[in-house]
Design brief:
- It is built from 16 helices and eleven strands.
- By secondary structure, the chain is α/β, with parallel strands linked by helices.
- It folds into two domains: about 220 residues, Growth Hormone, Chain: A (Up-down Bundle), CATH 1.20.1250; about 230 residues, 3-Layer(aba) Sandwich (Rossmann fold).
- The protein has a seven-stranded mixed beta sheet with strand order 7-6-5-8-9-11-10, with helices on both faces.
- The protein is elongated and about 85 Å long.
Length: about 500
């Protein structure tokens, strides 16, 4: 075993790097979201930190590499992983409240939490390579073999974390588990020195996992659930509604935004104001018999729809099966022959759909304000158009403003619908009082060219119809396409 200890150390450290990076995104998601900005900052800082580690590891190895010193490098890396796990909540909370922009917060968060352990992990491979080189004639093959092992370890870590660990274990437990792995690797490299420190890291990781599990059980007993799925870090909690005092239960995957909410005393009543605007589809298409909803969340609107329309059918496309499971466990979702749930990416569904619908409700977000770009493009809009019946209507929820710099996404999405549909309108959920304020906007598009009535005999619907946007665009923006859809760039001012 001693003969292959260096190979084992290099392989495992490569795996730990990728697991740390992928789990790091989950750690930051409830505070900073899951946008491309977060991933860019995380990948960039980890790569920069690894580069620093490579340089330091090589320089340190030139002083005379030993297994004992390598063991200490591994040990320190493990302690840094454990430390980042323990401090991530106060650090991320402080950054969220600091008022800094998304760019600064992402850079600071990744640097503080994942920079130091990445530097330590980066030092391991060049140090181990130096120890593996016996003579100059075979140095090339030795270097190539060790870096190949490190890369293979990274590949294994990527698949292991993406397919197994994140889907079945809490993020913080995974990080504490990485600390345990590093403690074991340090013992594999050399039992001495710092035996107490190595044992302490083993104990710290084990106690950390036990503590996290205990706190999770306590939180769940009090109605708070923190669950990782293959697609999201999902949190469920409940509290009193400010204006009414009614108890609501919410589900969230990002800071300051609810994906779904429900009144405990009436699960079919719509809680979030923007979801009530989806009821306009019945006003615009009174003969509505079957509808498609893209993005199920906790299935608040599908439950309401089935109750409000006893003879209508609804298909719901939800990419994350965990959302459906949690909706069944915590949001009173029940099987219904009129409800068909499809677990698939919404764009993939649209591309392959051969069914026709009277209405499509699109409420698809990848976290916070972000809509997956592939759902915003003219190609996606054309797919929606094609699967609608002749009098069909689309209602799409976005978050933007209608004036100012924050309005660029609204404008781009609106003109993209206009490229395909003959009639397109927008309704401002919070009204016209502050047009530069970011808010939910419901874009409604009609396949028919028949005149649309903007009046209703129902006072609540009539109030919604009065929030019709009648402004003009301030920018000259291109239609969104699969080839070019800068959704993240348009939305950056919205989240700052």
């Amino acid at each position: 075993m001693k003969k292959y200890s260096l190979e084992m150390v290099v392989f495992c450290s490569g795996a730990v790097v990728m697991i740390l990076e992928l789990v790091g995104a989950r750690i930051m998601a409830p505070y900073l979201g899951t946008s491309i900005i977060v991933w860019t900052g995380l990948i960039g800082i980890v790569l920069a930190s690894l580069s620093v580690g490579y340089a330091l590891g090589g320089r340190y190895a030139d002083r005379g590499p030993t297994m004992a010193r390598l063991s200490m490098i591994i040990l320190c890396s493990g302690f840094l992983i454990a430390l980042s796990t323990m401090i991530h909540k106060p650090v991320l909370s402080a950054l969220l409240q600091s008022g800094g922009g998304i760019y600064l917060n992402v850079i600071l968060a990744t640097t503080i939490l994942f920079g130091p352990p990445s530097v330590g992990l980066g030092m391991i491979t060049p140090y181990a390579v130096k120890m593996k080189i016996n003579n100059l004639e075979t140095s090339g093959s030795a270097v190539g073999r060790m870096y190949a092992l490190s890369t293979i370890g990274s590949i294994v870590g990527t698949f292991l974390s993406g397919f197994v660990l994140v889907a079945f274990f809490p993020s913080t437990n995974i990080l504490f588990f990485l600390a345990i792995i590093m403690a074991l690797l340090s013992l594999l490299a050399a039992v001495k020195p710092a035996v107490p420190a190595k044992l302490a890291l083993l104990v710290l990781g084990t106690v950390g996992i036990a503590a996290v599990s205990s706190m999770q059980n306590f939180a769940e007993e009090h109605g708070f659930f923190d669950v990782d799925s293959r697609y999201n870090r999902i949190q469920i909690y409940q509290g009193e509604e400010k204006n009414t005092g009614r108890i609501i239960r919410v589900i969230s995957t990002s800071p300051d935004r609810y994906q779904s909410a429900m009144y405990i005393d009436d699960p079919t009543e719509l809680t979030l104001e923007y979801t009530r605007y989806f009821r306009l589809i019945k006003h615009f298409n009174p003969d509505l018999e079957n509808a498609l909803m893209l993005g199920g969340g906790a299935f608040s609107f599908p439950r309401h729809f089935l109750k409000a329309h006893p003879h209508a059918l609804m298909d719901v496309v939800e990419i994350d099966p965990m959302f459906t499971r949690l909706a069944r466990e915590h949001f009173f979702l029940e099987d219904d022959p009129r409800l068909d749930i499809i677990h698939q990416d919404a764009r993939t569904f649209l591309n392959n759909c051969d069914k026709k619908y009277d209405a499509i409700i699109a409420d698809v977000f990848s976290g916070s304000y972000y809509i997956p770009f592939q759902m915003t493009t003219v190609e996606a809009v054309r797919e929606m158009y094609d699967i609608l019946n002749d009098n069909g209507v689309v209602a799409m929820n976005i978050i933007s403003s209608v004036e100012g710099l924050n309005s660029r996404f609204f404008q781009a999405q609106f003109i993209t619908f206009q490229e395909i549909f003959p009639q397109v309108f927008a309704f401002l959920v919070e009204g016209h009082a502050d047009p530069e304020k970011s808010q939910n906007i419901i874009i409604v598009a009609f396949k028919s060219e028949q005149p649309i009535s903007m009046n209703s005999t129902y006072p609540e619907l009539n109030s919604m119809l009065k929030n019709l946007w009648r402004g003009e665009f301030a920018y000259h923006l291109p239609v969104l396409t699969d080839n070019y859809a800068p959704v993240d760039r348009y939305l950056i001012p919205v989240i700052n």
